Amino acid sequence: MAIVAIATIATHEDLRPDPGAGRTGEVAQLEHPGAAPADRADRPWCGARPDREGPVGPVPVVPLLQNWAPAPGYDALCGRLGSMIGVGWPLVVALAVLVAIAVAASVVGRVGTSRMTVVAAVRAVVQLGAVSLVILAVVRSWWSTVAFTLLMAAVATWTSARRMTRHRSGLAAGVAILAGAVPVLAVVLASGTVPPTRIAVVPITGIVVGGAMSATSLAGRRALDGLTSRRGEYEAALSLGFGERDAAMLVVRPSGAEALVPALDQTRTVGLVTLPGAFVGVLLGGGDPVAAGAAQVLVLLGLLAAETIAVVVTVELVARGVVRRI
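Structure tokens predicted for ABC transporter permease:
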């Protein structure tokens, strides 16, 4: 989702200086809007100008990205960006092999996730395919944009609830997810770092809500498991005069720290171990490495903030008995 978010924003031409000024030769032909491929009409987000409205309205300049230098061949990339990752039988074969490797590893290791791996892979293909087809329709109006973001939050809530417990109290996961996502989105949009436009709101919301969902699921499962496996410690704390919430917090608080390990490790090692999706997405969208790094820092720190809040709220809900196993 991070790639979708940043690459979608980055492919708007007016996020860059006018590429036609002072350019000559083959590079100018590639970068200048006049050199765009004939099929640009099928891609209204390519070559959008400030004085011309596209299907999602005028595209504002993003302060964080307004100084990007256009990559050589930018317009050619915009017209043929999909060819960078070929869509055809080689892709199908590669995906099938990757799923087979995951299933084989699960079988050999007897971890019991073979069926879940296949189901997850099929769902990913179907869902991303559907999103690719409907995303432009979604961002044509604020009503559909808001409806789609609410759908994201609802699906995230249901997913976390089912991961934590079969009890209906798991639906309180929505409180933790929104508590983490809303402040981060407010800061990012209010600061002007990401423009409050439909084409930007949908993907950035997906990134933040998705991160908060994962953290909520992990924190909730571990906290509930801790209350079960360390029941003796909980009852001992009660016998010493602790209240139910305080006694439970002694047991479940470490679960919160463990749930944040993936986010902390990802933030610590970015650029050294991994090149995450936002970084790669900006590069694919024609941005330079500095702009890609800035976008990735924004995403990582936003996710870290959202996930930390979500974990704290989740642990509190479990300790207070709002979320329980039975």
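The chain has two domains: 2-6+141-319, 85-139.
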